[in-house]
Amino acid sequence: MTAEAVIEEMTHPSLPDWVFPPPGGFVAEDLDHIPDLPAHTELIDGSLVFVSPQASFHALIVDLLVVALRQAAPKDFRVRREMSVILGPSQRPEPDLMVIKAEAVRDDDETFYEARDVVLAIEVVSPESKDRDRHRKPQLYAEAAIQHFWRIEKIAGKPVVYVYELDPASNAYVITGIHHDFLKVSVPFELAIDLAEVDQL
């Protein structure tokens, strides 16, 4: 290979086709068919969104919630982590956690759930995704009529849980509580979590 060819190869590396979105953007079903797509890629407004590596706090609070939710959930609910939900043709985000209806579970090969199957969506805010987690994704979940949404922030090194419920009159979330040390809710089912336990994981 000539020096000129090497320089050309270095300055114009081959890129996967999914780097270039199709006219009109991607659709939700594309995520199951794009080869070599990075794990946990989301689709928001027709654009692919790539997830940064998780910080330890993020992983620990998700672990704490998974255990607590699975212990408390009635038998007609299931808890899923890091699976996507189709909200519309160009919307397929991946909440950190979801509580879904048990009837939505079909087999162990499924890669997504439908919005109608989701009872609760949970986002743990990361620095790189804070605008999406605080604004766009809750808006999308509300528009898709997901009844409950929790946003978890790290404040002064501790988890703070913001609990929202859908107002059917406005089709938007209203905050029903801000929980610093202890989370106790009655919907979508009775649940109590000592948030300080995250320090013991």
For this entry, give a set of tags.
alpha+beta, 201 residues, 3 helices, globular, 12 strands, six-stranded mixed sheet, two-stranded antiparallel ribbon, tt1808, chain A
Description:
The protein folds into 2 domains: 47 residues, no CATH class; 145 residues, tt1808, chain A (Alpha-Beta Complex), CATH 3.90.1570.10. The termini are far apart. Helix content is 20%, strand content 31%. The protein has 201 residues and is α+β, with helices and mostly antiparallel strands.
Which structural class matches the secondary elements? alpha+beta
Unreliable sequence segments: none
Number of E strands? 12
Q: Give the rounded overall mean pLDDT.
A: 92
The strand order across the widest sheet is: 3-5-7-8-9-10
Name the overall outline.
Answer: globular
Any idea of the CATH topology of the largest domain? tt1808, chain A
Number of helices: 3
CATH class of the largest domain: Alpha Beta
Proportion in β-strands: 25-35%
Q: Tell me the radius of gyration.
A: 19 Å
**CATH architect. name of the largest domain:** Alpha-Beta Complex
Domain Putative restriction endonuclease: 30-188
Protein name: Uma2 family endonuclease
Keywords: Endonuclease, Hydrolase, Nuclease
Organism: Nonomuraea helvata
